[in-house]
Amino acid sequence: MVGEGILKGLAETARNFFGSYVSKDRLTTVQYPEQREPQIEATRDFPFLVYDGADWQQGLRCVACQICEKECPPKCIFIEKSKDKKPDAFGKSQFYPAIFNIDISVCMSCQICVEVCPFDAIKMDVDYHQSTDDRFGGLLFNKQRLAKSNEYYNAIHPTEAAAVDAQRAEELAKLEAKAKAAAEAKAAAEATLAQKAPAQPAAGEQQ
Amino acid sequence: MTHLALLMQQLDQIFVLAAHWLLSYLPTALQPLGSAILSVTAIILVFATLFALVTWMERKGLGRMQNRYGPNRVGLWGIFQPIADGVKSLTKEDIVPFTADHAVHYMAPVLIVAASFLGYAVLPMGRNMVMVDLNAGVLFFFAVGSLMELAVFMAGWSSRSKYSLLGAMRAIAQMISYEVPLVLASIVVLMQAGSLSTVAIVNMQAVYSGIWPHWFVLTPWGFAGFVLFMIAATAESNRSPFDLPEGESEIVAGYFTEYSGFKFALFFLAEYIGMFATSGLAITLFLGGWSAPFSFLTWVPSYLWFFAKLLTLIAAFIWVRGTLPRLRMDQLMNLAWQFMLPMALLNLLTAGVWHLMPAGPLRWLVCSIMVVVPCILLGRGLKHKKKLQVRTYHFSQ
Amino acid sequence: MSTATHPAAHFELEPRTGPGIEQLLEISMGPQHPSTHGVFRMNVVLDGERVVRLKPVFGYLHRNHEKIAESETYLGSMPYTDRLDYICPLTNNWAYALAVEKLAGIQVPERAEYLRVITGELTRLQNHACLIGFLMQDMGASGTPLMYAFRQREIILDLFEALTGARMMCNYMRFGGCRVDLPAGWLDQAKRVVADFPRFMDEYERLLVSNEILMDRTQDVGVLSKELAVSAGISGPMARASGVDYDIRKVDRYSIYDRFNFRVPLGSHGDVYDRFMVRILEMRESVGILQQAMRDIPEGPIVDPKTKIRGFRPKPGEAYGRIEAPKGELGFYLVSDGSPNPYRYRVRPPSLVNLTVLEDLCLGRNVADIVVILGSIDIVLGEVDR
């Protein structure tokens, strides 16, 4: 019958109209900014630097190896190495970045810097409210702005951060076990040396 | 009469009584002038407010059909959105193209608004509530309705822009083509009523047999006439699916591309006011004007029924807009000349047969067949000619 | 109506003299236009409402993608491929990864292939949903079918965000597999989404398929003959709607597509309606592939353990990797000279190749049809201009 397709279309629209008052399925709007969608865990927006502990300068994991600077496709990272070294979480003495800038107006959130970092120092943040009206530097993040704590990292990406923490704990445990074994071996060696040493002067004295 | 009935009757006539009371303060010589000014002011105020309300209704309705809220930030449920839109269009810069014909460019929106408001003079909005009871009311309505087409052409031509020109050409062709089924569909009512006066037509429909009213839409030829009239009215007001002249995705905005700010708002206003006027005429001719749908509901004031029917028709317009894609120019014209014109002529024949046959179920049967069968046959014939079909697809082996 | 026979066919685009010039109207549709799918311009010469000449002008979105790739490492170009056909980033990634794997001779483990197929078919679903929504919008259906299509697309984009971290610029494929494995609960969520999809397809079909206005506007409009399709190098749903039986998933059998049971819909008329319906049928087939893949996905590594992320230097040579992207044949041609950066990097964009026949499709039609035909070709300017 002529007009039948049109009538079917009208019925479909009416179903959506009345359905929008009844089912959530047919009214999918989220009233931003009063309501927010829950954050999906794997979201990535812009990078940030992770630090352990309470002092962001002492606990910063980054060792200024500059691998992320080289691998970044749009070249938005700028790093200057420090002259001195400081000890890292595993006790080794490492350089640290004197300057670490990321220009987030250039950054394309591709996450390659995170993939190539050998020290779990740079991770992806989930905060996208970065708009500013300062055109000449408002979007250039320096080291202080980029540094966020490991607790923050655990809060935004729980599974990922838990895996990273577990791996670091394992490494730390291995290092400690090795250090303990080395210390024990050293103590044992000193003990044997100490046993031999007093016997000699006694022998010498007896003469 | 009981007190309640008297009270309801006074409520029904409240605007008439208020007008008489106001005019009694004027000297007798000035009373006709005062009455005219009062009616005009009332019509403009009421229908401009209705326009604001309908723009809000449309945005909310379309939104809900599309699984989203409509505007809901400005006031509760977004009810002040039309005010925000009005302020916006008033404060926009008025840009007139350098090569445009300034006088005509300025006059076109003024003329279109004036023309669209003129039609309300003959619409009875309640018992005894018509501004002017002309003997040839329906004829007057169609005559002033055609002024809108002139204004559209003025707008498109004076803008000196290719998009406007294309839009104006399309608009004129469409509006003129759809005048014919519009008028023919209303002639059946005039044949039955024997009068061109809108008041007489409504009075003839305001009688009841049992609980059923004598509305013309409740007859086979009336129903067909109503459907044809409404389709033609959609085309006359350039509403979707006939909004090719303002086809947003092709020619930006058609004949009012070069208008900005308040002039654009005036075109918008004129389109909607024209839509209400044509719907008002449809209600007067087919849906019984201000009369109640059942005899036990006549105590409700008559103007409430008129506006209720008007809002229902507007809701139907919004529903159709949200669903259908628009027709292309030649398909639009084919629809008018090859489908609606023959159907309207056949409808005239049916109405004549109805009038000449004695009352009873036989004339219902004969007239229904005379309306339905040609519709189906004609529809099938046209589809066949165009070779449209729902296809089946095969898959590769 | 072919170019050779129309009387105005020999006019230049800015006619100055000649018979009947005064009646021809030349308009420029775009680059700012509500429905040209991006910054795209068409110089159209009209005789009344009929199209006499049409010249597409593009390049407004040229971003030097191929030149940038010559100074980036192979991995560094991967995020840029997301931005080519920005509606289908995962299939772009896949085509590039395939090309590099051919170049360097890298094998991809099983689980990674399944992940690639799942994400690729989800991309196809949301791309076709996007397309049919936009086609209806261009026809003037004031947004209603568009909103329904986008409602479904949002659900799929949420899946992508949970897996890759971003809704659109996914950067997910790596040379030798995928970047990250499925998080907990993703497969169940995806199975639910895919199981729900046919219901949306049914609703959409009820809304549209037998709609007389739609049929009127799309049947016998923009007919592409089979011979022209083959000789112009058209690929993808556009070619299949004209009857050309060529689907790279069946021809090349790349990745693990030969394990799945799916059919390839073909049209016979080659008009806009056929292109529209072929895409709807393809969506249903994709749902079938997804269900099979999600049922059969094995455990295992997701990337070849021997591949390096840094310091990747493929041996000198060349390779051409192509896939059946939702828009057609997307190919990457790479020439390597042994250094970490490619010597030549070339993208074969399906949108650009499909666009070359636009004039032939539009000649003799109305202005209103141009937009509908352009919509049915399914172009994305990011791919056309690179």
Task: Provide tags for this entry.
heterotrimer, A: 207 residues, alpha+beta, Alpha-Beta Plaits, 3-stranded mixed beta sheet, 3-stranded antiparallel beta sheet, 14% strand, B: 397 residues, mainly alpha, 15 helices, 2% strand, globular
Report on the structure:
The complex is a heterotrimer of chains A (207), B (397) and C (386). Chain A has 207 residues and is an alpha+beta fold. Chain A contains six helices and eight strands. In chain A, helix 5 runs antiparallel to helix 6. Chain A starts with a helix and ends with a helix. In chain B, strands 1-2 form a two-stranded antiparallel sheet. The radius of gyration of chain B is 23 Å and the shape is globular. Chain B starts with a helix and ends with a strand. Chain C is 46% helix and 13% strand. In chain C, the strands form three sheets. A three-stranded antiparallel β-sheet of chain C has the order 1-2-3. In chain C, strand 2 and strand 3 form a beta hairpin. Chain C is globular, with a radius of gyration of 22 Å. The two termini of chain C are 32 Å apart. The relative contact order of chain C is 0.18. Chains in contact: A-B, A-C, B-C. Chains B and C meet through helix 8, helix 11, helix 13, helix 14 and strand 3 of B and helix 4, helix 5, helix 7, strand 6 and helix 11 of C. Strand 3 of chain B pairs antiparallel with strand 6 of chain C, so a sheet runs across the interface.
Question: Can you lay out the helices and strands and say which pair or pack?
Answer:
The complex is a heterotrimer of chains A (207), B (397) and C (386).
Chain A: H1 4-19, E1 47-51, H2 67-71, E2 77-81, E3 86-87, E4 93-94, E5 97-103, H3 112-116, E6 122-124, E7 140-141, H4 143-146, E8 147-149, H5 150-156, H6 158-206
Chain B: H1 3-12, H2 14-23, H3 31-65, H4 81-90, H5 102-118, H6 137-145, H7 147-158, H8 162-193, H9 198-205, E1 208-209, E2 212-213, H10 220-236, H11 248-251, H12 262-285, H13 302-323, H14 329-356, H15 361-386, E3 394-395
Antiparallel strand pairs in B: 1-2
Helix pairs in contact in B: 3-13, 5-7, 5-12, 7-8, 8-10, 8-14, 10-12, 10-14, 12-13, 14-15
Chain C: E1 24-29, E2 41-47, E3 50-57, H1 65-71, H2 78-82, H3 89-104, H4 110-138, H5 144-164, E4 173-174, E5 177-178, H6 186-208, H7 212-218, H8 226-232, H9 237-241, H10 248-251, E6 265-266, H11 272-296, E7 317-325, E8 328-336, E9 344-348, H12 350-355, H13 358-362, H14 367-377, H15 381-385
Antiparallel strand pairs in C: 1-2, 2-3, 4-5, 7-8, 8-9
Helix pairs in contact in C: 3-4, 4-5, 4-11, 4-14, 5-6, 6-11
